[in-house]
Write a structure and sequence with these properties.
The complex is a heterodimer of chains A (about 725) and B (about 280).
Chain A lengths: L1 H17 L3 H29 L9 H15 L7 H21 L4 H18 L28 H12 L3 H17 L6 H5 L4 H15 L10 H15 L8 H41 L8 H11 L3 H11 L5 H17 L2 E10 L6 E8 L13 H15 L28 E5 L7 E2 L5 H7 L24 H16 L1 E3 L3 E3 L17 E3 L8 H6 L4 E3 L15 H9 L6 H7 L27 E5 L10 E5 L5 E5 L4 E7 L35 H26 L9
Chain B lengths: L5 H7 L9 H18 L3 E9 L4 E8 L8 E5 L6 E2 L5 H7 L13 E12 L2 E12 H16 L1 E3 L3 E3 L5 E3 L8 H4 L5 E3 L11 H5 L20 E6 L4 E6 L5 E5 L6 E7 L7 H4 L1
The chains are: A alpha+beta (about 725), B alpha+beta (about 280).
GO cellular component, one term (chain B): sperm flagellum
Protein name (chain B): Radial spoke head protein 9 homolog
InterPro entries (chain B): RSP9
Chain lengths: ~725, ~280
């Protein structure tokens, strides 16, 4: 205790030497007065707050050290005259702190001190303090009492701080230091009293000791407090975030992490950026392609103009409807189309749409190849039929031997020729613009039939297998093609009158195959009012043939083929006649039927029409959205129209998908007496049977012998 | 997506195809700022669009300071006038679970559902057919709530939890690095955690309590219900939900931009296990 008082007196002597402002002198005097009275309660206070008694120095000494640290850090910028001000200021702050601590003491003491404190403050409180930050280092004070005075010194303190400091962050720095250092300097208690006793050289020793402590590196991380704090402060000063004090811990953490991450950065960046660069390179090729043409450019231009669709224009209209892939993505797709038309002989092509997949997406182009460019149909599925024939021939020979299976696989329905029906167009897909285009194989009716029964997500890889029940005959490229065919057949529509049938002779002849299937553009099409297009669905027609349940657009009668084969196998006519009673011809709605005839989905109409904009109807376009295939859109502005698909590639159904049940087990060979198992007769039965037999034999012999001898009958008994 | 960065966000989320037409975009920009002012929200998110048969609902959500507090949902039919929706309750969820099919687009439309209810009268107990009317607004509220609880996501580190409780936007969030952006564990459900307590102590020990206080997507059932894709080379990571098709989440790695939007019919894809 003696030490403290002497210590304080030393400090006050210093103050009196260096003090410049009158109020600073006043405070030491008042504190001197109140000291003898207040030292006890102050110690008590300290004891309550911090714990062991000899801790009354920590609040003070760190402050003095703080000032020197501040000086160290601020040396490049700060003028030297501010430092003595700092030194003088801090003890005065300290004194006020003491006063603060003293004030909430027992009331008999406070009555002494309050008037003194009150004397000081009116002078200083002329300018209202508008910054009332919570003082963090004083937060440990007991503030339970309702005395108002403790609050007055606080703004005072802040203002004093602000007066001497130029900007806020420094004040906060001050706080930060106090918090951190007050925890770390307990060990130096012993040296402190000694340090400040003598002249500033002892102070410097203390400072050096403390600095050495802060420079001590941590054994775990190789950091030290000093460097870390200076990094944090440098970062804050460089970046000047708002409310830095709120995120100070995060900044500190970030600085620590940055230190570690530096070495690994270069490696990581290289790995991560490679795919980006690859794609960028590929797309750059798209952009450069036009320049590499050379002499043939003019010739090719003509062809290219014919076949390249104006994707940007359609994209503009679809954007009015709210559908689209974004302008630059669409432009890249446009360039990819240009690449497609340059590398393949294409008559006409169209941007069909985008199908989303789990790992990658598909960009689909609907293409019509030039005449004679597409013969690579090699597979013939007639092998199955020949096998059937083989079986039926051998059956005749083996009729009596083994039970034969009556199962005949249903005849495979051949796929449609190219350019007709479901295979009217050829489709190319790519995963991303810049990647090579892949041609999808033609679709077979069997694939369509099975595709109707399953529902699977696309993965994005064309060779992925489709594992499903019923088993899909093919891999993902076939499934994709089948879904594209179904979507086209279900949702490609055009305004009424845009297409018309070709003028042909003899239209209403038999032609069991679904009627007319060729159409052409109507040169006299005058356009339909947009409002009409929106109001009535009968103004839109399907221009793609409907796919029959069989899987084809044009009906194929499997019975006909069988009848041809019957001429070869004679004994089979009856059986075949029984099986193929009369397969009804499957009929679908003919081409160019209005979509108002489409069946509803329970109660919901299959199409939704909208005007693209309600605010400016005179330039709006009609937008058609399919409810059956979510993602299929069509627009028309009266004269032009376009269809588009963007989605996952599945049909909509209100009820859940239920996988089809496996078929019932095939009937076994019919049971008849020849193959029915019978129990072996039991012993009694056998004996009875034998007795009966013997009786019968006896009877017959008796009959015989009655004619000859009647004497030997007794022997047989 | 944040209403402040609406245009950029729409461009980034356009990979799924469904976006907004220019007039809707323009009306949204103005009306959402007005909503923010009138309702005094801290942040306004454009949640998405539910496609109805007759009309579409545009949905926005307003957030207060505490980012995980229940959000206020507003809907509009024309992107100009917004109406507040009531908060979702359990009874609503139970009621609307029986309604199937598309949204009509008319908030006052009522779905009819006939139920067989047992009525006990004295000794006899017989079943009566009761027709229950469910308003479309109720259905809208509960569907939005379900989608939020199931698939609204946020990258790890975007929010941080203070020791006092409220959850703030992390201003030092610099975006996910590329190596983390492709993993499902770097994304969290934007809702109160449900599974966090069930983790083993070992797992919990490696979590950072200020950042890892929400469920991650790793353990979502069914496995594989998220599709993670990189678009534009590696410049954009897009997550699409397969359980609620139409929900798209986008994030540009190493930047602060992220967000999610739902454009769809508002129906859960119950066939998901068959489709994977």
């Amino acid at each position: 205790m003696e030490d403290t008082t002497s210590l304080e007196q030393e400090k006050e002597n210093k103050e009196q030497e260096e003090a410049e402002k009158p109020w600073e002198r006043k405070i030491p005097s008042s504190s001197q007065d109140s000291e003898p009275a207040s030292s006890d309660p102050w110690e008590v206070e300290q004891g309550r707050e911090i714990g062991p008694p000899p801790k009354n120095s920590p609040p003070r000494s760190p402050q003095s050290k703080d000032s020197t640290y501040l000086d160290d850090l601020r040396t490049p910028a700060s003028p030297s005259h501010s430092s003595p001000r700092e030194l003088s200021f801090i003890p005065s702050v300290l004194a006020l702190a003491k006063q603060n601590l003293a004030i909430p003491s027992p009331s008999d003491r406070t009555t002494n001190e309050i008037p003194e404190a009150g004397k000081l403050h009116p002078d200083l409180l002329e300018q209202p303090s508008d910054k009332k930050e919570p003082t963090q280092h004083h937060s440990s004070q007991p503030e339970g009492n309702t005395c108002q005075l403790p609050q007055q010194p606080k703004p005072l303190l802040q203002r004093m701080r602000n007066v001497s400091h130029n900007d806020k962050p420094k004040g906060q720095r001050f706080d930060v230091f106090q918090e951190e250092d007050s925890n770390s300097n307990y060990g130096l208690d012993q040296t402190e009293p000694g340090a400040s006793e003598a002249a500033p050289s002892m102070l410097e020793t203390a400072i050096r000791n403390a600095k050495a402590y802060l420079l001590k590196t941590s054994s775990r991380s190789g950091f030290n407090v000093y460097d870390h704090l200076s990094n944090v402060l440098t970062k804050i000063l460089d970046e000047r975030p708002e409310d830095a004090v709120d995120i100070i811990e995060n900044i500190s953490q970030d600085v620590k992490m940055e230190h570690f991450n530096k070495k690994l950065d270069t490696l990581q960046n290289e790995n991560e950026m490679l795919p980006t660069y690859e794609i960028a390179e590929k797309q750059k090729v798209l952009f450069l392609h036009g320049h590499l043409e050379g002499a043939d450019q003019e010739l090719e231009e003509e062809i290219v103009e014919n076949s390249l669709p104006n994707i940007m224009e359609s994209a503009f209209y679809f954007e009015q409807a709210g559908i689209g892939l974004g302008t630059d993505e669409t432009y890249r797709i446009f360039l990819a189309f240009k690449q497609l038309t340059d590398t393949h002989p294409i008559q006409r092509c169209r941007f069909w749409g985008k199908i989303l997949g789990v790992e990658m997406n598909y960009i689909v182009a609907e293409v019509e190849l030039r005449e004679g460019e597409d013969e690579e149909e090699v597979e013939e599925e007639d092998m199955a039929e020949e096998r059937d024939n083989g079986e039926s021939e051998t059956d005749e020979d083996e009729e009596d031997e083994l039970p034969k299976s009556f199962y005949k696989a249903p005849p495979v329905i051949p796929k449609e020729e190219s350019r007709t029906g479901a295979n009217k167009y050829v489709y190319f897909v790519c995963n991303e613009p810049g990647r090579p285009w892949v041609k999808l194989p033609s679709v077979t009716p069997a694939q369509i039939v099975v595709a109707r029964k399953i529902k699977k997500f696309f993965t994005g890889r064309l060779d992925a297998p489709i594992i499903s029940y019923p088993p899909f005959p093919g891999n993902e490229s076939n499934y994709l093609r089948a879904q594209i065919a179904r979507i086209s057949a279900g949702t490609h529509v055009s305004p009424l009158g845009f297409y018309q049938f070709n003028e042909e002779e003899g239209e209403e002849e038999e032609e069991p195959e679904g009627g007319r299937d060729s159409f052409e553009e109507n040169p006299d099409f005058e356009g339909i009012q947009v409002t009409d297009l929106v109001e009535s669905l009968s103004n839109w027609v399907h221009h793609v043939q409907h796919i029959l349940p069989q899987g084809r657009c044009n009906w194929f009668n499997p019975v006909q083929k069988n009848e041809e084969e019957e001429e070869e196998d004679e004994g089979k006519e009856e059986e075949k006649g029984e099986e193929s009673d009369f397969i009804e011809q499957e009929v679908g709605p003919p081409l160019l039927t209005p979509i108002s005839e489409d069946t509803e989905i329970q109660t919901i109409p299959p199409w939704t029409t909208r005007l693209s904009s309600n605010l400016i109807p005179q330039y709006a376009i009609a937008v058609l959205r399919s409810n059956l295939w979510p993602g299929a859109y069509a627009f028309s502005n009266g004269k032009k129209f376009e269809n588009f698909y963007i989605g996952w590639g599945h049909k909509y159904s209100v009820d859940n998908y239920t996988p089809p049940v496996p078929p019932p087990v095939h009937l076994e060979y019919s049971s008849g007496p020849e193959i029915t198992e019978m129990d072996d007769p039991s012993v009694e039965q056998e004996q009875a049977f034998k007795a009966a037999q013997e009786a019968a034999a006896l009877a017959s012999e008796e009959n015989e012998e009655t004619e000859e001898d009647e004497d030997e009958e007794d022997d047989y008994d | 997506m944040d209403a402040e960065s609406l245009l950029l966000s729409l461009e980034l989320a356009s990979g799924s195809g469904q976006g907004l037409s220019p007039d809707r975009r323009a009306s949204l920009l103005t009306s959402l700022t007005l909503v923010k002012r009138d309702y005094r929200y801290n942040r306004v998110l454009f949640w998405g669009r539910i496609l109805g048969v007759v009309a579409d609902y545009y949905i926005a959500q307003g957030l207060s300071e505490n980012q995980l507090a229940p959000r206020k949902t507003l809907y509009s039919l024309n992107c100009v006038e917004w109406s507040l929706l009531p908060p979702a309750t359990e009874e609503m969820a139970a009621q609307t679970a029986v309604v199937k099919g598309r949204f009509m687009g008319d908030p006052s439309h009522e779905y009819e559902h006939t139920e067989l209810q047992r009525v006990n009268e004295g000794d006899k107990a017989f079943e009566e057919e009761v027709v229950v009317q469910i308003k479309e607004e109720t259905r809208l509220v509960s569907v939005i709530d379900q989608i939020d609880k199931a698939v609204a996501i946020i990258p790890r580190g975007a929010l941080f939890k203070t020791p006092f409780g409220p959850i703030h936007i992390n201003r030092t969030f610099e975006g996910l690095p590329l190596s983390e952006a492709k993993k499902l564990s770097s994304y969290f459900h934007f809702r109160e955690p449900v599974e966090l307590r069930n983790k083993t102590l070992l797992e919990k020990a490696s979590l950072d309590p200020s950042l890892d206080f929400m469920d991650s997507l790793e353990h979502d059932i069914p496995k594989g219900s998220w599709s993670v894709q990189m678009e534009r080379g590696n410049a954009l990571v897009v997550l699409r939900s397969l359980l609620w098709p139409g929900l798209t989440f986008y994030h540009t790695p190493n930047t602060k931009s992220y967000g999610y939007v739902y454009v769809g019919t508002g129906e859960k894809n119950i066939d998901l296990p068959f489709m994977l």
